[in-house]
Design a protein that fits this description.
The protein is an alpha+beta fold. The protein contains eight helices and 18 strands. The chain has helices at 17-20, 28-43, 59-69, 88-100, 112-119, 144-155, 221-226, 315-324; strands at residues 3-8, 49-53, 76-80, 106-110, 127-131, 165-167, 170-175, 178-183, 186-190, 206-211, 237-254, 257-263, 267-270, 274-278, 283-287, 290-295, 300-306, 311-313. Strands 9, 10, 11, 12, 13, 15 and 16 form a seven-stranded antiparallel beta sheet that branches. Strands 3-2-1-4-5 form a five-stranded parallel beta sheet, sandwiched between helices. The model has no long low-confidence stretch (mean pLDDT 93).
Length: 329
């Protein structure tokens, strides 16, 4: 049976940056519409079963009810009942469950944080990341129908994965030789001492930015580094830059907001190469835009870029490969 999973994060795109910038708001009503289109696109091309988490916001239930009411639901939708935490743990648990069921592809609706949570536990299942978060670099804006079609092509196992998917990089953060956490796009060292307010807003507090990818066409911390040097997902290296010292650049730090700040010379980080950081004051490390790790003076960390991220589907390539293989005939 061909199956896929859909993880629609009801909390994505609702952090403080919505109030302090001009970011688009994707409410749960729009997420329901997107999920409907993903399902319709997937089932039309052979997906027989779809797994979704039974979450607090009842996105899955509402999708299922609406499709049944319209008599357009042709596949089976299983709403998985798991312990509810209303946190990133829900993403971890449903990802592990979907992989155990053998889904051929997982489609996420969320931002960089949603996909970072998935990346902590996902193994070999390819993913399609649909943007519904705040400062999104990892997920992209994809029409739901097209995402569903690509998910069906990936889940069909009719095409070689390396033709349409890439194993992404990630940043691994170690302390005392133990893996503390990961980031998919960027890890930011700042002298902000509390993690209660997840987002970093004051650029004057930033000390260093580590990236797996960087480009001025993105939004957020990776764009700051990208205004000095472009690093693509395909490049087998990452980069580190010092902030508030170096040359002045103007970068899109948030939606609708560009700031001028000093950025140091890029330091290239080869895969598996460790970069040591020893704290001389209290602060925090933000991972993909959210403060997660606190540190004190004398704490030592190793930052390492690896090619151990998820298998990420290039939707356009997947559909091109599917067309060449007669998938739509």
């Amino acid at each position: 049976m061909t199956s896929i999973g859909i993880i629609a994060n009801p909390a994505s795109g609702k952090d403080i940056r919505r109030l302090l910038s001009y970011a688009t708001v994707t409410d749960n009503g729009e997420k329901i519409n997107i999920v409907e289109r993903i399902i319709l696109g997937a089932q039309a091309l052979g997906v027989e079963k779809i797994y979704m988490l039974s979450d607090f916001s009842r996105i899955g239930y509402k999708v299922k009810e609406r499709l049944i009411t319209r008599k357009t639901l042709k596949c089976e939708i299983e709403l998985v009942e798991l312990p509810k935490y209303n946190s990133f743990r829900d993403t971890l648990n449903i990802t592990e469950y979907m992989e155990k069921q053998g889904v051929g592809c997982i489609v996420t609706l969320g931002g960089d944080g949603t996909n970072r949570a998935l990346a902590k536990v996902v193994k070999d299942t390819p993913i399609i990341a649909v943007s519904t978060g705040t400062n999104n670099v990892y997920p992209v804006m994809i029409e739901g129908t097209i995402a569903g079609m690509a998910a069906a092509a990936a889940a069909s196992n009719k095409f070689e994965r390396n033709l349409y998917a890439i194993r992404d990089k990630r940043i691994e953060i170690y302390k005392d030789s133990e893996l503390v956490d990961i980031a998919l796009v960027d890890a930011v060292i700042s002298n902000e001492v509390h993690i209660a307010s997840k987002a970093i807003w004051d650029m004057e507090n930033i000390k260093k930015i580590f990236v797996t990818r960087s480009h001025p066409a993105s939004i957020g911390f990776s764009s700051i580094a990208g205004c000095r040097k472009i690093v693509t997902p395909q490049d087998n290296f990452g980069m580190c830059v010092d902030i508030n010292q170096g040359e002045p650049v103007v970068a899109p730090v948030s939606a609708g907001i560009l700031e001028s700040l000093l950025v140091g010379s890029p330091v290239m980080l080869e895969l598996e190469e460790g970069y040591e950081f020893t704290a001389d004051e209290r602060g925090t490390i933000a991972l993909d835009g959210e403060k997660e790790v606190e540190f004190s003076p004398g704490d030592k960390f190793i930052f390492k870029v690896t090619r151990k991220g998820p298998y990420h589907v290039d939707v356009v390539k997947a559909l091109e490969i599917a067309q060449l293989g007669g998938f739509f005939s």
